[in-house]
Structures are given as structure tokens and as C-alpha cells.
Fold this protein.
Amino acid sequence: MDAPAHFPISCDVAIVGAGVSGCFIARELSRYRLEIVIIERDSDVCSGASKGNGGAVHSGANTEPNTLKARLCVEGNARFPSLAEELSFPLKTVGSLIIARNESEKPHLEQLLQWAQANRVPDCRIIDSAEIKRLEPNVKAVAALFAPTLRITCPHRFVFALADNAFENGVKFLLDTTVTDIEVRRGKVTAVITDRGRINAKVVINAAGVHADRIAEMAGVRDFDIIPRRGEYYVLDKRVQLVSRNIFPVPTKVTKGTCVFPSIDGNNLIGPNADIVDDRDDTSTSASVKEAIIRTVKQFVPSLPEGEIIAAFAGVRATSDSGDFIIGHTRVDGFINVAGIQSPGLTASPAIAEMVVNLVGEKLRLTRNPKFRPERKRPKRFADCSVEERKALIARDARHSRIVCRCEMVTEKEIIDAIHLGLGARTINGIKFRTRAGMGRCQGGFCRFRVAQILARELNKPLTEVTLRGRKSFLFAGRVPQLSTT
Ligand SMILES: Cc1cc2nc3c(=O)[nH]c(=O)nc-3n(C[C@H](O)[C@H](O)[C@H](O)COP(=O)(O)OP(=O)(O)OC[C@H]3O[C@@H](n4cnc5c(N)ncnc54)[C@H](O)[C@@H]3O)c2cc1C
């Protein structure tokens, strides 16, 4: 973790928002000799839409052609295999089926095949119900568009990998820091004002997700509105294995539809919906949406066992009023928008970052940083190792023999590494999203207290100062004297 910040700070590039867009841009800019600061109001990176999504690296087959999001989606998808190698995050190519549930939906598949061809999505074809049965025995459909290049990843570990790599290449992260104003003088951006102090910057990148229109307004260039659309997901227990590919219905004007799909960590999930919400930061879930999602999925996966749902989460999409990504210079010199980054923003992030580096290059001289290291290597998860590999890990470090999260088999050594390597976790949720401790069937019932104890010990602070997700989310008020044994 970085040394404490002393304000005012001066930098070349200030990035507002540490989601996948901000972190990828920071990482790509760290290839050059630049002072880069990334400002995030939350206590950790990957806290907005980048946390609450389905983790699909979309093929681009169900994205409308001749849009920026379609082009950047297909370009981004192709870059994931080498990125996963370079940055040690999990990735698997599983493919997807966009299904016609009945005869009347069949003509949509022909149109989607044309979209796929226009978007240059490789190897797409329409398959019949017999082939669907062979590929996905639990799916009921009359035909489908098969797109083999859809991949799945863990969105959290992907963004943490980008942030770690940016951090290790010299990017300064200001967490728990809210941007409150943008200073513009004589038509040029000069500084970002935050609740902790001032950051002088030559270029400011607005990657603030659902709040991007408000940040643009601070700079006096609110030329678009964000329409926040919430999507809820429901996670099934690992023993329920319904599908091995992402199964989508035909898309609507606003969403790719409610689907059923495998996660990279072995769960099947159902969702999302796409409802407009008033509160952009409200990621609550509701019984009524859950029931609607179950009803929809049962139309094409009738054997869905709804009693096996173990967790729910939601994310809010930053849909722009134009419906497309908004990436580019503005009337304020040096103020760049990376806004309206709705789905498939996670997929498109490598191509978005490349595009933004070119925009920055039009404002600042970019010279290569000879110290830049593209790799961020991390070992395989203990849970994914063979018995022999586990024995070797334990022989090397006995802390691997202490299993802290039993459901997801996370060791004490992995939790310690999550605290001390790279940007480093500071909260219980920070540990959860880096290691999966607390993401299994018991949802942290067994391990949460033990994770808190390790955090307190490693960060050298009392247990009462450990938080769930930063700020004032304390879990422990103090000791109960009558029960204390130590
Ligand atoms: C339900 C759902 C499902 C999705 N599924 C997929 C999928 O399967 N595949 C895919 O490719 N994409 C998917 N997406 C889209 C993808 O998640 C987003 O496109 C992507 O995460 C956007 O990243 P971002 O960095 O632009 O925004 P965010 O991740 O939202 O980051 C913006 C950050 O800015 C910070 N911020 C805001 N205001 C301020 C301020 N004033 N000061 C400081 N910081 C501030 C926020 O705290 C936040 O961390 C999905 C999205 C949702 C919501």
C-alpha cells in the first residue's frame, strides 16, 4: 500500500474512478514516463459496476453493429488470453448460445448472425435443437446462435490484477477520496478537487461509471446523461451444474437478456434484469426480481432448482442516453470522457484503454518508461492445485496447511498474500474478492471472524478497527468483559 498522500499533489494525468476502465487506463499509461494519480471514493478498487457484473468476456455477437461498443468488444475479447497469462487472472473460453425459445424467435437468430458477421465475431453459426441438446442437455430451445469465443473470467481478480500491475509500475492510488469539483481555467483543465485536497493535473480522465455525467458537469461539459440500470444476479450452489456455456435469450433494445451461465469458480448463475433505478448506488436485491428471473430462466432451463440459490448481488449499469460508449476529448482542453461504459465494458476494457492512451498522446508527449514491467505473476489458487501441488506448497510454507475458508478452501497464506502483495486488501470484502474467502455456501459464516483476526494482526490494528468495506462499516464494537478469556 502507498505512503500517505500529502496535498496538494501534482501529476500529469488524474483518473477519476478505479473500476476496470480507470485501472486499465492507469496500467496502460504507466508504460510511459508520466506521473499518474487514480482517485477512488470507495475504500478499494473494483467497487462500482466492475464488481457487480456477470464476468462474461462477450463475443460481440449480441451487440448492435456500427457502435463503438461493438468494435471495442470484439477487439477486447481477442486480447484476453494473452492478458490472463501476463497478469495471472483466471480465464476460460466456453462459448455461448443465444437461443430461440420458440418458432417466433427464430428469425431473430438470422439477424444476430448478420450482426455477428458485421462485427467480425469469429466462427458463429446457427444450430438446431438436436445439437443444443447434445451441447447443453438441460436447455430447452428450438434453435440457437452458437458463438464459440465467449470467455468467462473473475471480474474482481481481473481488476485487482490491473490495479496491482499499475501500482507496481508507479501509479499512485488515492482510495477513500471523493472528487467534488473539477477546476477549469481559460478553457483548460487545471485540477481535480477532492474531499482530501487538491490534485493539479494536465489531463483529467473521467472514468466515474454511473457518476460520469456529474463529473462532466463539474467540468462544465455535461453533454450526456447517465441512465442507471440495475441488474441482479443469483448464485447457485456448486453442486448444481445446469450449463457449461452462457445461455442468452435473444437480446432486447436495452439488454442482452436474463441468462444462465457458469462462473469461472464453478457456480452456475442466473440473471440479470435491467431496471432503471433512482439511486445510482443502490445495489440491493429484491424478492420480486428474484422470482421474475427464476420464472424467465425456467422457460428454457425447466430443471432449475430455485432452492439451491446461495447468494445474490447486483450492479448498476452506466447506460448513456445515446446508448453507446462516450470516449473522447471534450470542449475543455485536457478533460477526457470515458463514460456510458455499460455492458460489454469489462470485455472492451483493453481496447478502451488503448484508445484513451492515444487521446492522452494528443495532449502530452509520451516517452517509454524503461522500468515498466507488464507481468504481475501470482501462484495458482490452493483450491485449484492437485494433491501433490498442495503438499509441495505446505512443505514450503506451513501457513498453507491452515484452511481459513472451508467452503472455498482458502489458506491463511493466501489471505496474508492478499494483504501484502500489490495494492493489498484492507477490509474483509477486500480479502473476499481477492481470495474468495466468504464466497462459498456458508457465505462467510465460518471464516469472517478469522479473516478479521488475520487482518487485525497483519495490519497491526485492533479488531474493532477492522471494517467490512471501509469507512464506518465496523463489525466489532469491543469486548464483552464477562465473556473475555484473554
Ligand atoms: C448487471 C451488470 C452486468 C454486466 N455484465 C457484464 C459482462 O458480463 N461483461 C461485460 O463485459 N460487461 C458487463 N457489464 C458492464 C461492466 O461491468 C461495466 O461496463 C464496467 O465495469 C464499467 O467499468 P467502469 O470502470 O467504467 O465503471 P465502474 O466500475 O462503475 O467504476 C467507476 C468508479 O468511479 C468511482 N467514482 C464515482 N464517482 C466518483 C467520485 N466523485 N470520486 C471518486 N470516485 C468516483 C466509483 O466509486 C467507481 O468505483 C455489466 C454491468 C452490470 C451492472
About this structure: The chain has a mean pLDDT of 96. The pocket of flavin-adenine dinucleotide is lined by residues 16-22, 39-42, 47-50, 52-56, 58, 178-179, 207-209, 211, 231, 272, 315-317, 341-347 (CB under 6 Å). The first helix runs from residue 20 to 29.
